[in-house]
Design brief:
Helices cover 74% and strands 0% of the residues. The protein is mostly helical and 374 residues long. It has one domain.
Length: 374
């Protein structure tokens, strides 16, 4: 009885310390963007405003509609609730990533502690920014569980994930292939409903104008963010390597297409294992920050299932692949400003080392499928 109480007390103390740190470091700036969007919906005001600068709202209007409860409450109360929900979602995400892993070879404590170590940088950024990546991850894992049970609600969950982060549309083809056109049809119906829903507040034409403003906002802010150190997308990688321009854009598109083509290879080889879905969604989650032109390093938090899978299969991998996987972890998880210092950190980020590390992890995942290890 004492151990659970002690554990609970330690978790509470860590959470309180984390909240205090978040208020000092970044103070939930991204959450404030979401909350402001919710408040604007209440007042039926435009959502997408260039004068918001770097912190423009870049999600579909339906997500702003979902943020109305936070827009209606005081900012300080909203921050506390948002932080508590994020901590709870992190616990669910890591727990479910471990529980859903097929043919697990390592103990739960081993995977839990190593996952916390490898994802620690991303978890801290998620908390201090007040982000929604962990919510996306939880929804995708719930969709996987529903798809494995043959439930059509998998489509609704994929659609919900897309409203949290539009690049979750990557999972629509997987859903259609894994569960059939009926589930994909449910997802499309849910997406359409979500796109139409803001018309309740803004009217039909006002909602169409909002969707056009969303597209304009995303298109106009993409190129300006490519050379940010923390941008780890394929577009940013090529822009940093050869400079912003048509050549970098073309190479980024080709790299993204190649990455998606590999996902098809994983699907073709899925008959070699009993539960193939876990590795497939893990690979797609890992691709999310690489394909999105505004993929920041902390979005790699959504790759937690991939990290769990690679940690679990690490000891059974050939030495060369152990080196590749460990190098991927080192480059993605431990390229930290406070650890490396400003000069070395910026040098590494200018070389897109985190993107290279993520590609090493992706290659390690692909090897597991090709060798029928996952």
């Amino acid at each position: 009885m004492r151990r659970p109480l002690l554990t609970a007390l330690i978790v509470i103390l860590i959470a309180v310390a984390g909240y205090a740190t978040a208020r000092i470091k970044r103070d939930f700036w991204d959450f404030e963007v979401y909350r402001k969007a919710g408040a604007r919906v209440i007042a039926a005001e435009p959502l997408y405003r260039p004068d918001d600068g770097h912190y423009q709202f870049k999600y579909w209007p339906g997500f702003a509609l979902a943020m109305v409860p936070f827009g209606a409450m005081p900012l300080e109360a909203g921050k506390v609730i948002w932080y508590a929900l994020t901590v709870a979602l992190i616990a669910v995400f890591i727990r479910q990533s471990i529980r859903a892993l097929p043919d697990r070879q390592s103990s739960v404590p081993f995977l839990t502690w190593w996952t916390l170590l490898v994802t620690g940088k991303f978890l801290v950024k998620e908390l201090v920014n007040g982000q929604t990546n962990v919510l996306l991850g939880v929804l995708v894992l719930l969709a996987l569980a529903a798809a494995q049970q043959g439930r059509l609600r998998a489509g609704i969950l994929v659609a919900a994930a897309a409203f949290v982060k539009p690049y979750a549309l990557l999972f629509l083809p997987w859903l259609a292939a894994a569960q059939g056109l009926a589930a994909a049809g449910v997802a499309l119906a849910a997406l359409v409903a979500g796109w139409i829903a803001p018309a309740i507040v803004y009217g039909w034409h006002g909602n169409l104008a909002l969707l056009a403003d969303w597209y304009r906002t995303v298109a106009e802010t993409t190129s300006a963010n490519l050379l940010f150190p923390e941008n780890i997308s394929f577009a940013a990688m090529w822009a940093k390597w050869i400079g912003v321009g048509p050549a970098a854009t073309g190479l980024a598109a080709a790299t993204a297409i190649a990455g998606l083509a590999v996902a098809i290879v994983l699907w073709v080889r899925r008959g070699q294992v009993s539960r193939p879905g876990y590795l497939e969604i893990s690979y797609l989650l890992l691709l999310v920050p690489l394909i999105s032109p505004q993929g920041w390093d902390y979005v790699l938090l959504v790759a937690t299932p991939a990290i769990v899978c690679l940690l679990d299969r690490f000891r059974g991998s050939p030495r060369g692949w152990q080196v590749a996987t460990a190098s991927g972890f080192l480059l993605t998880s431990f390229t930290i400003y406070d650890l490396l210092g400003r000069t070395f950190y910026l040098s590494l980020m200018s070389l897109s080392t985190i993107t290279v590390g993520a590609l090493l992890l992706a290659a390690s995942l692909v090897r597991l499928r090709l060798t029928a290890a996952a």
